[in-house]
Amino acid sequence: MQSCAMPYPDEMPLEIRVRLAALGLIAENCAPERLFGGRTNLVWRISEGPRAVVCKLFCKGFASPLFPNDSTSEATVLASLAGTGLSPGILASIETKFGPVIVYEFVHGASWTGGAVDVGKALAKVHSHQAPEGLRILPSGSAAIAQQTLAILQECDGADADAIVARQPPTTLPPAETLCLIHGDVVPNNIIRTTAGLVFIDWQCPALGDPCEDVAMFLSPAMQALYGGHDLSADDRDAFLSAYGDLAIATRYKKLAPLFHWRMAAHCLWKSQRGERDYTPAIELELAALEQG
User: Fold this and answer.
1) pLDDT tens by residue, 3-16
2) What is the pTM of this model?
3) Residue 141: CA atoms inside 13 Å, Cβ hemisphere, count?
4) What's the fold here for domain 111-292?
5) What architecture is the 14-106 domain classified under in CATH?
6) How confident is the model at residue 2 (pLDDT cuts 50, 70, 90)?
């Protein structure tokens, strides 16, 4: 599993612990527990009695063309979603010599492993929430998605990149008329099932964009395989789209799906060529889905 390529130990740096203790968020003599769920940042849980918080240290150099790693945007969105139950509550955001740090409430529950209907309903709630100002705007429409994908492939080498370029689907669809708050990384590990419902975590890739972006991310076979999910059946996909409750979005997604699979194949190649070899078989998952339409 990838971790931050920085001179950091698994233990929380003392400076960060002291800073958070001064803010009254943790005890200076606490025992942070390293969490291993994501692939990008260093994350610790600090438990004191029934209360638990998460400290996330953002790592430099781990953004990709498809997934930025933006601490400021995550803090902004968490504050915006306060009280909705759709995200953890943010407690602090600070700058340190190691990088940006945010602290938020620990979400008690388990990573999503099944129940596509619940995800569809919860994601619709996210998309109905007013997006805060200042978020990046995602490419929208077939021409923009194709341009974004080709830009990713230009950063890849060899015949594998050429082969994916050649698989570009002939999809033509205009930009979305209405943009909404996008999580940007709706993968199984970022969906927590709690007693109160589903909560979305790891908001470091939020945006203003076409709701089909989040739909495509959840339905991506590569993302399901890489992040602890399971192979979604056609019934699962249909149930998810039905539960989302917007026929126009479901119809638009189905038209754009080949482009989204093509783009995800490009992303997986980009990651694979940078040493994350578990992305290599994921390329074929996306290309197979592309062929299925």
Assistant:
1) 454 455 678 999 99
2) 0.95
3) 9
4) Aminoglycoside 3'-phosphotransferase; Chain: A, domain 2 (3.90.1200)
5) 2-Layer Sandwich (3.30)
6) very low
